[in-house]
């Protein structure tokens, strides 16, 4: 019981330090690792080794994958590929279902691009479509935001889900995380869309009275846009390769044990697949007046990607250090045994992630911290199988979207770019993320009844 109390103190430390005292999550998680190690009585001589080993272990496992995914996303963002994706979907769906179109655009764009950046990129498109189709700006804003949010918390190569998968030893089976993540994300996107339809007739925002630029003007700002094949390939091809690699590595050997399996296992390794995706994305790099050569433009975009990924890498590493300390203390089996008697299973990581998300605002921190926390106790929760680990990642993802409010940067991106009042944003956007999170965990639970 003493170890459980130590764990609760550590969690309270992370929540209070990040939410109330605004300490960076990296320092909060690192501090929690030292605090847990000292309070639990780990030998002083082993504390530094345990923490540094956990930090380096998770980054060696997943760090390059996060970095490559961020570089690809930055290239797609700067080249106008997100606009091409949106344009392709609009041509396929037409003007009959504007909010569904907006949600689907967000759902696809947020796989390689952070939801905050995705909203900024697509906001002008959303405004142009809102005026062109004569529909509610609030409904369109919520549809876009919830579509972006859905894949952001469930589908690699977004860094949060990748880090959680790494903490739960699933890096070599990301294909299964992607496949089931797309299903759960689709359910949450549909739930968000349903709420967007409801909100569209009930709420208004400043954007409703604005005159905005045309869709054609928006596209012209990017110059020559990539083709649909160029825009989708850098992310879809790695995802397909990762999924095929997971199938090839499946214990039943569905593709045999010969050359085909070896080749697909190599190409489907997340690191190798994202290297291929990066090479596919390189022709999209655009020069500018201040970066007149492809090399200079690429270097600038890689530098921007490193700046974006660095905090995530540090948080992920600190989460790995915290997880290593928890594993060394043996708190996992003790807490797992207690929780298993309650029969809450997958709802336990969901509740922890939701509490962390609501308290400190970052979905990535909630994903990393919760996955590090539950990793040592999966066996006691009955979730130590490959499928159990995958579903645990998705349960954590559902918690990590519950809920987005004033301490979440995405909440303010949606609020400010849509010119919503804070009270309207709470009713429209925050409630939408609550509905999405609950839909997510219900979907994961239904999948567990079928797959476990």
TrEMBL record:
Transmembrane helix found in the keyword field: yes
Keyword vocabulary terms for this entry: Membrane, Transmembrane, Transmembrane helix
Pfam families from the UniProt entry: GntP_permease
Alphabetized InterPro entries for the sequence: Glcn_transporter
Keyword Transmembrane helix assigned: yes
Sequence intervals crossing the membrane: 27-48, 55-76, 104-122, 134-154, 174-196, 231-251, 263-285, 305-326, 338-356, 363-384, 426-451
UniProt-recorded name of the protein: GntP family permease
Organism whose genome encodes this protein: Grimontia kaedaensis
């Amino acid at each position: 019981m003493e170890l459980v109390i130590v764990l609760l103190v550590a969690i309270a430390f992370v929540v209070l330090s990040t939410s109330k005292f605004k300490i960076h999550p990296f320092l909060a998680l690192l501090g929690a690792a030292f605090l847990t190690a000292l309070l639990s009585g780990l030998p002083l001589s082993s504390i530094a080794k345990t923490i540094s080993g956990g930090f380096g272990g998770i980054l060696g496992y997943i760090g390059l994958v996060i970095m490559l995914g961020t570089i690809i996303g930055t290239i797609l963002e700067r080249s106008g590929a997100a606009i091409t994706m949106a344009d392709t979907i609009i041509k396929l769906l037409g003007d009959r279902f504007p909010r569904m179109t907006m949600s689907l655009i967000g759902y696809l764009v947020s796989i390689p691009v952070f939801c905050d950046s995705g909203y900024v990129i697509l906001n002008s498109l959303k405004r142009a479509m809102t005026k062109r189709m004569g529909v509610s700006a609030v409904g369109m804003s919520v549809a876009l935001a919830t579509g972006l949010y859905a894949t952001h918390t469930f589908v690699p190569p977004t860094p949060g889900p990748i880090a959680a998968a790494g903490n739960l030893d699933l890096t070599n089976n990301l294909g299964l995380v992607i496949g089931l993540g797309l299903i759960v994300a689709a359910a949450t996107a549909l739930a968000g869309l349903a709420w967007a339809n409801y909100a569209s007739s009930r709420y208004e925002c400043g954007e409703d009275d604005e005159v905005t630029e045309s869709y054609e003007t928006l596209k012209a700002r990017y110059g020559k846009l990539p083709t649909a094949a160029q825009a989708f390939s850098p992310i879809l091809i790695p995802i397909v390769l990762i999924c095929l690699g997971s199938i090839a590595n499946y214990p039943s050997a569905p593709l045999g044990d010969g050359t085909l399996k070896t080749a697909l296992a190599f190409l489907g390794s997340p690191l190798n697949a994202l290297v291929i995706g990066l090479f596919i994305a390189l022709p999209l790099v655009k020069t500018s007046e201040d970066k007149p050569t492809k090399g200079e433009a690429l270097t600038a975009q890689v530098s921007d990607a490193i700046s974006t990924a660095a905090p995530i890498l540090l948080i992920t590493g600190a989460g790995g250090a915290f997880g290593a300390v928890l594993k060394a203390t043996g708190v996992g089996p003790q807490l797992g045994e207690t929780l298993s008697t309650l029969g809450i299973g997958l709802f336990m990581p969901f509740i922890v992630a939701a509490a962390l998300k609501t308290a400190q605002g970052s979905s990535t921190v909630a994903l990393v911290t919760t996955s590090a926390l539950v990793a040592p106790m999966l066996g006691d929760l009955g979730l130590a199988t490959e499928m159990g680990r995958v579903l645990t990642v998705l349960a954590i993802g559902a918690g990590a979207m519950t809920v987005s409010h004033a301490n979440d940067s995405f909440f303010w991106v949606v609020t400010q770019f849509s010119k919503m009042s804070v009270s309207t944003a709470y009713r429209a956007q925050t409630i939408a993320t609550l509905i999405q999170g609950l839909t997510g965990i219900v979907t994961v639970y239904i999948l567990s009844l079928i797959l476990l």
